[in-house]
Amino acid sequence: MAMNESNLPPLSLYVHLPWCVVKCPYCDFNSHKAGSSPPLGQYVAAIKADIAIESERAAGRRVQTIFLGGGTPSFFDASQIGEILEAAHADLNVAVDAEITMEANPGTLECGELASYRSAGVNRLSLGAQSFDTDSLRALGRIHGVDDIYAAVNEAQSAGFNSINIDLMYGLPGQTAAMALADLGKATELEPQHISHYQLTIEPNTVFYSRTPEDMPDDDTSFEMQEACHHHLRDAGYGQYEISAFAKPGYECRHNLNYWTFGDYLAVGAGAHGKVTDEQGTIRRYEKPAHPLAFIKAPKNSPSNVEARKLHDDDILFEYMLNVLRLPQGFTRTMFEQRTGLEFEALLERLGECRDKGLLREATDESWQPTELGLRFLNDLQAQFLPTRSVV
Ligand SMILES: C[S@@+](CC[C@H](N)C(=O)[O-])C[C@H]1O[C@@H](n2cnc3c(N)ncnc32)[C@H](O)[C@@H]1O
Ligand code: SF4
User: Fold this and answer.
1) What is the distance in A from the centroid of ligand 1 to the CA of 22?
2) Nearest-CA residue for atom 14 of ligand 1
3) Residue 9 CB neighbour total at 10 angstroms
4) Is a pLDDT exceeding 80 seen at residue 345?
């Protein structure tokens, strides 16, 4: 089937800004300690050149959302963020009502700066609060204190941000279920429109992996925290629309929802990953050089910067399920067929097996949802859809 703007998936733009004041001991993102003089100006110039490359790939399609992620985007000042957004508006067809999110670390915000980010075009702010407990923030190696979170939220609200996310983590060293709930209570009291509530995971290649804190909560305690916190979020008016994402009605993150529903996205910046469907319905993936200095140096038309891989049908199916199973509302036959270009029948046998294991439920003839068990053991559920050709 020939694809055009009306039946192609929505298109988003991700921009990666990789530096942080320090590298947090639990973090496996492509983020780097800034040192004394990171080449911010050169990086912004490379980002602008990269946006020009991506404009060819976008071929005039409308960009519905932009996400400035990191690292710590708020490490860049508002004029630099403004330059990046101006380049996006100049080279791409950015929708007038585009959601434009920027991640910020409460420890990098100077007084008055949030109003400047707002004037530069950012209309959604995502604050990495992590915890409202001083000892927990210290155990996580964060550069901010509890007061910085309150100052950032107050300032964001006065600067006119009416779509604010707070990132919180639970399952922290030494944390009890009561402490996790108290943390969350402080976040909901501030009435942000969105809360991302992540369980701290110990990732390979992090300081916490080689030196795991001795007082990490066990699995049962973490589950108890999750249950209590999810109840609290529901009671406070936040609907769960993804395994870790909770929003007041109408404030779901459109950018992340586009990832989770297998939409398309352009990749700009060090290590950024993109996925684009062409007019023939072929889905391709690509990524940018991972290290910030390699990204700055990469000749802009080098194969590593522009080459895209065509996805095999088995990978399309797995990647679709990997994403969409994160959503409690699940997916429909129509969504699956539109986004993947595959026959729904290819899935039926495995869907049935998951239903028999209690991991999925058939909500109607045409729609499937993960059960509570499925969401709790999401990795097991996702693994049921691994490409069969990798099984020997
Ligand atoms: C790129 S960071 C957000 C912005 C900024 N870098 C900061 O940390 O304030 C995205 C979020 O991922 C979460 N995160 C990072 N590492 C994690 C881990 N190991 N386990 C769970 N959540 C993690 C944190 O809540 C963090 O705010
Ligand atoms: S500030 Fe955010 S991105 Fe940077 S190291 Fe810490 S968690 Fe990772």
Assistant:
1) 13
2) 27
3) 21
4) yes
